[in-house]
User: What shape does this take?
Amino acid sequence: MKLKSAALAAAFAIAAPAMAGYNVSVDEFSVTKGGSLIYLDSFNDSTPPPNNPMNPPFTYTVNGTVGPENSSDRLIMDQSGAALGTNSLGQTRAYQSVQLNTNDSPTTVPTDTDYSRGLKSWHDFTASVTFDYSVPSPGLVYGLRLADFSSTNPYSGNDTAFLMVYGGSGGPQVVFYQQNYVLGFQTVLDGTAVTASPFDQITLTLSHAAGSNQVSASWAYLLGGVLQGTGAFAPTATLFSDEPFTRASFMVSAPVPEPETWAMLLAGLGMLGFMSRRRLRV
Assistant: This one.
């Protein structure tokens, strides 16, 4: 059942303020270009990012810390490695992200060496990530992103597209949205409830056709490595508004309490402690 974008946007903006513990396992991250695989990390070398199995020429930028890579060839992302940051609306979030630093040259001259490198607006490409599925707590998201971020500034992008598993008030959802960190807004493009069919993994994919500034989103459900179903959104996200490159990353992000929420929580705990001591004296 597809959710109305306006209702989804409202639910997305008022997600629960308290950060819950999370433990997300990533099975595989890949990028194709012109129909050929150019990058693959199966997280089976026991050394988590920023190490990567195809270095050089690729490097990772990691925000927060991630790992370990366990004996099941999974990369673990949990709250113990989270960093604090803000989304495009200025809301404080705990997050971990792993960005593949493909070429970000702004050249548009075909004879330049960098013209053929990276993920540019004139290239066909896809980025995909496969997670072991876990039901997200309210406000938690994990998934895939395309963004015009630099290697050093995670808040520099004005063209970002996110495809995420999201813990909504009505249950887990797959959500497609954009954020603009320069102008400070967020746009939910579409969302749908996670299928009720049995599955243990979900693959999220963002795809771009050469010569377009649009990116499409799709996903697949797997059980024991066998395809169980697929889905795709009709709306597309817009990239490449003022630069010809984008970069792929996978991430986890969770809400954290605002100061007033902490104050209410501590006050509540203090009252519980007082009541407990009073009962003991009686």
In short: The domain at 2-257 is CATH 2.60.120 (Jelly Rolls). Confidence is low (pLDDT under 50) at residues 14-18, 259-282.
